[in-house]
Amino acid sequence: MDIKTLSFSNDTLTVQPLVAALVARNAAHFAGALQPLWRSGLRLEVNLSRVDRFDGAGVGALLSCQRAMQRQGCTLVLTQVQPHLERELQACGLHALLATPSDSPFPNHWVH
C-alpha cells in the first residue's frame, strides 16, 4: 500500500494512506506499511481524509497497529477522519480506546 509522508517535525510524523477504503483486501498491507515507521517517542499521525470506507478488517488493522505501537512507546493519531467514519468508530466502541485531546489543532481526530 502506498503511504505518502505529509510532514515530519520534532517527534511527529504525518502520513496519508493513498486509498479510498481500508478493507479486508488491503488492511494487512496498511498495517505492514506503517510498521517500519514505529519508533519509541514518535507521534505517528495518519491522515484519513482520503479514506471514505472501512470494514471490520480495517478497524482490526487500526486496533492492532495502535496496540503494537503503544507497546513500542509510539503514539498513533488518526486525523481528518470523515464524520460518518467517526460515527462508525464510536459505534464499534472505539471511543473507550481512542480519546480526543482538547489541545489538538485538528477538529476531527482520534488519539491514543
Describe this protein's structure:
- With 112 residues, the protein is of the alpha/beta class.
- 29% of the residues lie in helices and 27% in strands.
- The chain has three helices and seven strands.
- The chain has helices at 27-34, 56-71, 83-91; strands at 3-9, 12-17, 21-22, 43-47, 53-54, 75-79, 109-111.
- It has a five-stranded mixed beta sheet with strand order 1-2-4-6-7. A two-stranded parallel sheet has the order 3-5.
- β1 and β2 (12-17) form a beta hairpin.
- α1 (27-34) runs parallel beside α2.
- The radius of gyration is 13 Å and the shape is globular.
- It starts with a strand and ends with a strand.
- 26% of the residues are buried.
- The model is unreliable at 101-108 (pLDDT under 50).
